[in-house]
Design brief:
With 175 residues, the protein is mainly alpha-helical. Among the domains are: 6-35; 71-155, no CATH class. The protein contains 9 helices and 2 strands. It has a two-stranded antiparallel ribbon. Helix 1 packs across helix 2 (21-34) and helix 5 (66-87) crosses helix 7. The longest helix has 22 residues, at 66-87.
Length: 175
Amino acid sequence: MPYKDKEKANANKRKNNKLHPELARERQRRYRAEHPEQIKAARRDYYWRHRDRMIELSRKSHVKHREARLLYHKQHNRELKELVIKTYGGRCTCCGERELDFLCIDHLNGGGTQHRFKVGLGSRFYHWLKKQGFPPDYQVLCYNCNMGKESPDGCPHQRRRNEVLVLRKGYHGAT
């Protein structure tokens, strides 16, 4: 028989919840699944009744967890860069450099500056590449080769290779 006294009924519920926490969690899960609009309305109502306090707590949490958040994003962005670089070959296509800190993604057909302004810099660009399924119009270059590519003579590595090939052809052609 149910309790007529509401306080006794609530005390009994709390006691049973402590004795059987798995059943309490199941009841809560079921209630949330069956009443999502009431839960949403109650949360919204609570927020507006305690808005100033909620904003202050959010600010404090933001400051308190700043270092952890920055570390998480730094690790996440590094893992994303590793994935993108590995997907495009894992080394500089010109000189073979493998050190991740020296590598970047190069637009094969040029137009990288305009494209980066459109999709974003750094990790935003890597996210875009991943979302697009790693399109083939990109290559891995180290920063030196990427800058050298823009010079009129091209990358120094390519110039040296071309000079060696010319010398070899000239040497073999003489005999």
